[in-house]
From TrEMBL:
The chain crosses the membrane at residues 27-45, 57-83, 95-124, 136-153, 173-195, 223-240, 246-264, 276-302, 314-331, 343-362, 399-420. The keyword Membrane applies. One of its GO terms (cellular component) is plasma membrane. It comes from Candidatus Wildermuthbacteria bacterium RIFCSPHIGHO2_02_FULL_45_25. It is found in: Cell membrane. Residues 16-365 form the Citrate transporter-like domain. PANTHER family: P PROTEIN. CDD domains: P_permease. One of its GO terms (molecular function) is arsenite transmembrane transporter activity. This is Citrate transporter-like domain-containing protein.
Length: 426
């Protein structure tokens, strides 16, 4: 093993330990790790910058600006009180109803946009019902990633694979939506068993929240209309991504610019509200992972994973599912999927094996496996950042205790689905 390889692995391990221990703020830990890689000559600055996924960052920043502007219309309070009225203010039905909304929105908006829209709603509801918001937030993370599995635009790894493979929006809907629906239902059921005794409110709080008329929550109808128009344009941009060739960052940043222009608001106020700690955490994390890529660690791990299959399609598919789930939980599913794409393409070129089942195996593992830890997917990091800003910090271990077993169940269901639908007769 070379010194650069040992150095990259050591820095990655220490960075991850610091994030888990929470003795150092995760953003600081990630940035320090990224800086050390460059200072020690393991990664050149140019390569470090190339390792940053600016499409993801642009998507996050653009949607954060749009959401921060839209908040002023009262639309989130409207959704909150409408959901409360539909469920008669009962915390458990409300929890389940919000889970369904998150999963559905994630499929057609993308998971990051969905949590940016829904987390403020959850804080409003939890505060009024006087219940802990953490079950709602953890449920939002899990169901946003599961729901996002269903479509081409639901999760960033799906967009990466769609671009590389030529698979269409309808392909994703046909092949991944069924497993997304099943795993969403099972996860909601398990979350109900875990949290049903904690989601208890007082009759007074329940009665008080029902007094609110959702219509009265709208404070600025013009801003609401403008916000809905821009959100519609952004959604159309995501859906037509394959036809227009526009990346998520361009669509989201364009939507932010359009809404700023339509409202004639000064950008400083909304830029200040962007979760910059989360953005810089991603920057540091992307660079730390780029260090592993630079010395060949991820490539070697992926090759070893594929070599074990000895050309057996069934074993190959199952190893890709579980390997993707494990690695995505540790290093974030976006860089892992980006690394796996050329390897899967090479498998097809060499062996002649049909690639579509392998793409689905990669995405089921990466999308669902990203649920296991707070750094496994973009939505996880965004929600934990928003929670910390509201003094409702979700610790790494606290989240892991709930998410890891539910992720295992989800990936196991996904494996059975893939085997029965694609690999059983190969």
């Amino acid at each position: 093993m070379s010194l650069t390889l040992i150095g990259a692995v050591t820095i990655f391990a220490l960075t991850y330990i610091a994030i888990i221990s929470e003795r150092v703020h995760r953003t600081v830990a990630a940035l320090v790790g990224a800086t050390l890689l460059i200072l020690l000559g393991i990664l050149e600055q140019e390569h470090a910058i190339e390792g940053i996924d600016f499409n993801t960052l642009g998507l996050l920043i653009g949607m954060m600006v749009v959401v921060n502007i839209a908040k002023g219309s009262g639309m989130f309070q409207y959704v909150a009180f409408w959901a409360a009225r539909v469920t008669k203010g009962k915390p458990v039905p409300l929890f389940l109803f919000l889970g369904v909304i998150v999963a559905l929105f994630s499929a057609f908006l993308d998971n990051v946009t969905t949590v940016l829209l829904m987390v403020p709603v959850m804080f409003v509801l939890a505060n009024n019902l006087k219940i802990s918001v953490k079950p709602l937030l953890i449920g939002a993370i899990l169901l946003s990633n599961i729901g996002g599995t269903a479509t081409l635009i639901g999760d960033p790894p799906n967009i990466l694979v769609g671009s590389a493979s030529g698979l269409t929006f309808n392909d994703f809907l046909i092949h991944l939506a069924p497993i997304s629906i099943v795993v969403s239902a099972v996860t909601l059921g398990l979350l109900f068993l875990i949290y049903r005794k904690k989601l208890i409110t007082t009759p007074e709080a329940q009665a008080n929240i029902l007094k609110f008329d959702p219509k009265h929550a709208i404070t600025d109808k013009r801003l609401l209309i403008k916000s809905l128009i821009v959100l519609g344009v952004i959604l159309a941009g995501f859906i037509t991504h394959n036809m227009t060739g526009l990346e998520g960052a361009t669509i989201a940043m364009g939507g932010a610019a359009l809404l700023l222009l339509m409202t004639m608001n000064h950008p400083e106020e909304y830029l200040e509200k962007v979760e910059w700690g989360t953005i810089f955490f991603f920057i540091g994390l992307f660079i730390v992972v780029a260090g592993l890529e630079e010395v060949g660690v991820i490539h070697m791990a992926a090759e070893s994973l594929l070599r074990l299959t000895e050309g057996n399609p069934v074993m190959m598919g199952m190893l890709i599912v579980w390997g993707s789930a494990i690695f995505s939980a540790i290093i974030d599913n976006i860089p892992f999927v980006a690394t796996m794409i050329p390897l899967i393409q090479d498998i097809g070129a060499i062996s002649g094996i049909a690639l579509a089942p392998l793409w689905w195996a990669l995405l089921v593992g990466a999308d669902l496996g990203g649920n296991a830890t707070l750094v496994g997917a973009s939505a996880n990091v965004v929600v934990s950042g928003m929670a910390e800003k509201e003094d409702q910090k979700i610790s790494f271990v606290e989240y892991l205790k709930i998410a890891l077993p539910l992720t295992f169940v989800g990936v196991a269901i996904g494996s059975v689905y893939l085997y029965l639908r694609y690999f059983m007769f190969m």
